[in-house]
Amino acid sequence: RRHSPSFAIVAGSAGAGLGVGAVLAIGISNVLADALAMGVGEYLSTKTEHEYIAEERAREAWELENYPEGEITEMVGIFVERGMSHEDATEVITRMAKYPDFFVNLMMTEELGLQVPDEGNQSLLKGVVMFCAFATFGMLPIFGYVATDWVVKDAAGNGEEQPMTMLIAACTVTSVTLFALGAFKAHFAHKKYLRSGLETLMLGGACATLSYNVGLALSSLAK
């Protein structure tokens, strides 16, 4: 749904009767601002999460080093609750505790439900990926709208804008992309492709419809 906001901008601008230049300026500036906000938000949230996990891991490592019996007993209890016998759990945990780094990561997962991230600056990478994804998909409706303007002007030969034709083209481009993204998401969520695609398409369409009618209404009041 990353490009629903930009599609809503196009629809609202079309409803208000704004020219192509205004749609282009408003749309691109809004998409880039939103993309930056999403990228920075993803970076900060991931960085904060990783810092919290690092602190918890350091605490667990200290406890294992200073109170190994207590940590081993706690892990044995967890494995017993999972269905292992006390004897088997004790043997397994005692063997794994011989490898501190591995055992601390296991403690993080089993005790705290936290997955230790891989080494490297994943926070920055995730922020950049979020920015690029939001900006790329957000530009599709805007470029579809503007490209249609160029094609229509060339075909007509009179240089006049065709707002409704341009809006229909933007709707088509965005609808296809929304459905494709929804279907792609279903692959990871183990949902039906058709249902997920239609769900994403309907939500994006609802946003655009509301925006178009608001723009149309405000434009009428301003006249």
Describe the protein's topology.
Elements: H1 4-16, H2 20-66, H3 68-81, H4 86-96, H5 100-112, H6 122-156, H7 163-189, H8 193-222
Helix pairs in contact: 1-2, 1-6, 1-7, 1-8, 2-3, 2-5, 2-6, 3-4, 6-7, 7-8
Folded structure, characterized:
With 223 residues, the chain is mainly alpha-helical. It is built from eight helices and no strands. It has helices at 4-16, 20-66, 68-81, 86-96, 100-112, 122-156, 163-189, 193-222. The longest helix is centred in the N-terminal third of the chain and has 47 residues, at 20-66. The two termini are 34 Å apart.
Compact summary:
85% of the residues lie in helices and 0% in strands. With 223 residues, the chain is mainly alpha-helical.
Key features?
mainly alpha, about 220 residues, about 85% helix, elongated
Task: Give the low-pLDDT segments.
Answer: none
Write down the oligomeric state: single chain
For the biggest sheet, the summary is: none
| Record field, number of beta strands | 0
Mean pLDDT: 79
Radius of gyration from the CA trace? 27 Å
What is the helical fraction, as a range of percent?
over 70%
Q: What amount of the residues lies in strands?
A: under 5%
